[in-house]
Specification:
- By secondary structure, the protein is mainly alpha-helical.
- It is about 50% helix and about 5% strand.
- Strands 1-3 form a two-stranded antiparallel ribbon.
- The protein is globular.
Length: about 475
């Protein structure tokens, strides 16, 4: 067995080196936006295919939202108190994320930034192409533009929470975009809110293709509720969350926790399909550890997260698994049950789901002094988990209880824990004990050094 593991490890590391070496010689010329508008949008089928292509880019292995080992899901889990390190021989940059000492020239940090701006460019190209098209119907234009505006807002939301204020290119003007300076956090959030507000005005409540992998009005509403929460606009956040929760003809909490992350789960508000990968989600591939594929897995569940589950919490039974025995026992996230398959995907990567909206509304209600309403919402989630109703009965106690509930409900989902610690001012309190060299400047990732070299108008975050 040791010899087999050594062979696997050697092959994997050689593959990484070869791929990295090839990547250095790959250069992409600035896309031709005239081609995008004149050719791609010359009929409705091509317009739909172009927008569907943006969705597919989200699931790219190097993509920020993919759920892969290169994604925000994994990397912020390592930066927070959610994930521990498992295989650092192959994943050599992960200790720097774990120690909150990310190098500005980090290749995987660059992947986050560049994949996000790649998505933004294609969103901008789609908007320009749709507006210029004379053959796409007005109804379809509205639908597709609403979807693209959402994706752009979603991308900027992740960027601003990782890096602070960022450049906000809204066109395909390559020369202009390459010299763009950073906007403030407030300006970045305002663009996100503007995009989501317009997205909501253009979309219907129906999913375009019948699957929850496209964007409808309620998906935009759900993200807007999250954005307002982060901006401490409690009333608007509560209103948006309530609108989604009350649409019980579309969304309801799954009674069976094994069903939550299935394709088109009744709890899913928006998912990303892994079609085009190996048929399994990248989360499944990244997290599920077996005796055969152990060398592909960089992380485990942290001891702190394991200890955060209350007694009899069935989420621990359904969403955590392990390998090994005794002192060698290792726990890993098991929300997704499939790490590889040649069959059509039965699980989709879940980005927004109904449980989050209940917890958002619980938090906004607590902030607004609606104690009983906040208790009702958090208890909906606790009851499904098989644990007693919360004993928290004051604003401050409820806010602590909700943060704890978010920790054990939303772990390893699109960076929630890291973002929660930062936005609530808890990062220093929690992460200093994990990392003695923690500094508040670590709350933001560094702007990639490679981007600073290309654009003299960019500035680095403090501490890097």
């Amino acid at each position: 067995m040791k010899n087999i593991k050594l062979i696997y490890r050697t092959v994997f590391i050689i593959t990484l080196i070869v791929c990295s070496s090839c990547e250095e010689y790959v250069e992409v010329d600035p896309p031709n936006s005239k081609v995008v508008s004149d050719v791609v949008y010359e009929n409705e089928s091509l317009a739909i295919a172009a927008v569907d292509g943006i969705y597919h880019r989200l699931i790219n292995y190097l993509g920020f939202a993919s759920g892969s080992v290169n994604s925000i899901t994994v990397l912020t889990g390592v930066s927070s108190d959610e994930l521990g390190l498992y295989n650092t021989l192959a994943f050599t940059e992960y200790p720097l994320f774990y120690e909150n000492s990310i190098a500005p020239d980090s290749s995987i940090n660059l992947n986050i930034w560049s994949s996000a701006y790649n998505i933004i460019y294609h969103c901008n190209a789609a908007i320009e192409g749709l507006n210029a098209s004379e053959v796409v119907s007005e109804e379809l234009k509205k639908q597709l533009e609403g979807e693209v505006l959402f994706i752009r807002a979603f991308t900027y939301f992740n960027l601003v929470n990782l890096y602070g204020g960022v450049p906000i290119p809204l066109t395909t003007d390559y020369e202009e975009n390459s010299k763009a300076s950073r906007k403030s956090i407030e300006e970045t959030y305002q663009q996100i809110i503007d995009d989501l507000t317009r997205s909501r005005s253009l979309l219907s409540d129906m999913y375009r293709d019948g699957n929850r992998t496209s964007i409808n009005r309620l998906v935009a509403t759900a993200l807007l509720s999250r954005v307002y929460l982060y901006r401490e606009d409690w009333k608007n956040s509560e209103a948006m969350a309530t609108e989604v929760i009350n649409t019980n003809s579309l969304y309801k909490l799954s009674d069976n926790l094994d069903n939550v992350f299935l394709a088109n789960s009744e709890e899913a508000i928006w998912q990303i399909s892994p079609v085009g990968s190996n048929g399994a989600t990248y989360e499944g591939a990244a997290f599920i550890i077996t005796s055969i594929n152990w060398f592909l897995n960089p992380v485990t569940i942290s001891n702190g997260l394991m200890e955060a589950f209350e007694d009899n919490d069935i989420r621990k039974d359904y969403w955590v698994s392990s390998i090994g025995e005794g002192a060698e026992k290792t726990f890993y996230p098991f929300k997704y049950k499939i790490s590889y398959t040649i069959n059509d995907p039965s699980e989709f990567s879940t980005v927004i789901r109904l449980a989050e909206l209940y917890l958002i509304r619980a938090e906004t209600r607590a902030q607004l002094g609606n104690i009983s309403g906040a208790q009702d919402d958090i208890n909906v989630i606790r009851e499904r988990a098989g644990i007693p109703d919360t004993k928290a009965d004051s604003r401050d106690e409820l806010l602590e209880a909700i943060l704890q509930e978010r920790r054990v409900e939303l772990f390893t989902e699109q960076g929630h824990r890291w973002f929660d610690l930062v936005r609530t001012g808890k990062a220093s309190e929690v992460l200093t004990s994990k990392n003695g060299s923690w500094s508040e400047s670590n709350e933001l990732y560094p702007i990639p050094e490679q981007e600073l070299a290309k654009n003299s108008n960019l500035t680095q975050n403090e501490g890097y």
